Amino acid sequence: MGDNMARDSKVGNKDNDLSRLRLAFFPIYDSELSQFIPMCGLVFFTIFAFHLLRSVKDPLITTAPGSSVEVLSFLKIYLVLPSTILSSILYMRLRRSYGLYDAYNLIIGLFISFFFIFAVFIYPNADYLHPSLEQLQSWQNAYPSFKYPLVMVGLWTHCLFYVFSELWGTFALSILFWQIANDTTRSDQAKRFYPLYVMSGNLAMLALYPTLDHIAHNPVNDVQEASGLVVVSGMFLIGIFSYIHKNLLPTLLAENRVTDSKQKKLSFSGSIGVLMRSKYIGCIALLVLSYGIVINLVELIWKSELNKLFPVRSDYLAFNRDYILMTGVATIFMNYISKGVIRKMSWITGAIITPISCGICSLLFFIFVLNKDVLSSFLLTFNVVPQAFSVWFGAYGVLISKGSKYSFFDPTKEMVFIPLDNELRTNGKAAVDGIGGRLGKSAGGLLASTLFMVMGSPPAIEIAPILAVVVFVLTIVWIVAVVSLSKLYNKKLQENIHKELDRGEGTISVSA
């Protein structure tokens, strides 16, 4: 360990030797490339599949006959949330019985199997597996308050695709990739590595443009081709992680982590008890919950406007193609800014940018949508179609919100897991990202779906005033949680420094 501390000190000195240009764009040392490049490959294919599925899953549901965007709220609360909670419980038990390598291969292998079966067997026979449109409409006429939940019954195979697409983001990206990154990255490396991992994801979004362009012009096999590409991405992920596990992981774990062989392994219920009592984990969960609810409520109204403008799936996919490209370009720009902010300034500076940007963009969008009729005549004088303006106004707001999430929120959130002990870090991350992350989105779905049923299944725009108030309150709560977590994070870093000093194993310099 003394050698490790000496190495950390040398790395800190090397930071000063980097040229300004390299420090700004690629602050990675040659000796770190063997670790850094495979991890970039891992996040590239993970995010490529993630955004591909995100682009396909919404229009698959919302443009289907008899469906609409309001169905998504019911999907998230009644199907995605239970599936995520159950999967998170199974994941924690899996990690207690098997190593990361076996857990990773098993989970990615399950995704590969599902999307292969969906593309080859389920989707081509969907018309035979679903009830007829006439039958669905008769159910909806008989039970108008359950108009949207009944769509899930009528399109159950499409909903299954939606659930697995959501689980990919939760497990392949939020839990598995970042668990590997946190296990193999020191705190001094995180400020340099994590923003560049996000950059690799941005490049995946740019690479997705020609793929979505092709899929948008191939409406017959679009979903099958997307599923096939996810299968191929999954195979690449297993291959890359096998290389990391064989050639890099043992050395990195030995260098970066000190494992106490006498540390008691907690049961699942014991782990949950620790998480419930941990204010530190609670603050992280509150950040994730706030983001999930805010972005979900905003996207519900935005996607309802989007569905009106693009009711045909191929047109919807073409919009997603352009939107993801813009998001990738904007996020690359924001990511370069975030590298400097996170590296040079305090943790709280980088972490608080996302709630501020999300809050401002969301509230401005709600103000416009709720006053669209008043502003329509003004827009028409400039030959601007109000519906198109509403969609693109919301698109840029969501783009900024998600860009700040990928560039500032994700890296700073992952950094706060690093100082924790192994047990709390593993179970805490699974609970926060697996349960907490999904609960954030599902809580928004619960609120919206409840309003839909109570109000007799109205269009989404009629519940927008209530959602705007919720978004404002949650933005304030989010900012307060960031301030509280900043204090706890700095305290934890100092405690770890003092522990190392007490052991007489050298000195370490860590900046929050």
Gist?
The protein is mostly helical.
List the helices and strands and how they pair.
Layout: H1 2-17, H2 20-25, H3 33-62, H4 71-97, H5 100-122, H6 126-129, H7 133-142, H8 147-154, H9 156-184, H10 187-216, H11 222-256, H12 268-277, H13 279-309, H14 313-344, H15 347-351, H16 353-370, H17 372-380, H18 386-415, H19 422-454, H20 464-502
Helix pairs in contact: 3-9, 3-10, 3-11, 3-14, 4-9, 4-19, 5-9, 5-11, 7-8, 9-19, 10-14, 10-18, 12-19, 13-16, 13-18, 13-19, 13-20, 14-18, 16-18, 16-20
Label the overall shape: globular
Q: What's the assembly state of these chains? A: single chain
- Strand/helix succession: HHHHHHHHHHHHHHHHHHHH
- Low-pLDDT stretches are 1-16, 257-268, 506-512
Query: What is the straight-line distance between the termini?
Result: 22 Å
| Fraction of residues in helix | over 70%
Write down how many β-strands occur, each being a DSSP E stretch of 2 or more residues.
0
The residue-averaged pLDDT reads: 83
Largest sheet: none
Output the number of helix runs: 20
Q: What is the radius of gyration?
A: 23 Å
Beta content comes to under 5%
Structural class: mainly alpha
Protein model, in words:
By secondary structure, the protein is mainly α. 83% of the residues lie in helices and 0% in strands. The protein contains 20 helices and no strands. It has helices at 2-17, 20-25, 33-62, 71-97, 100-122, 126-129, 133-142, 147-154, 156-184, 187-216, 222-256, 268-277, 279-309, 313-344, 347-351, 353-370, 372-380, 386-415, 422-454, 464-502. Helix 3 (33-62) crosses helix 10 (187-216), helix 5 (100-122) runs antiparallel to helix 9 (156-184) and helix 14 (313-344) crosses helix 18 (386-415). The longest helix has 39 residues, at 464-502. The two termini are 22 Å apart.
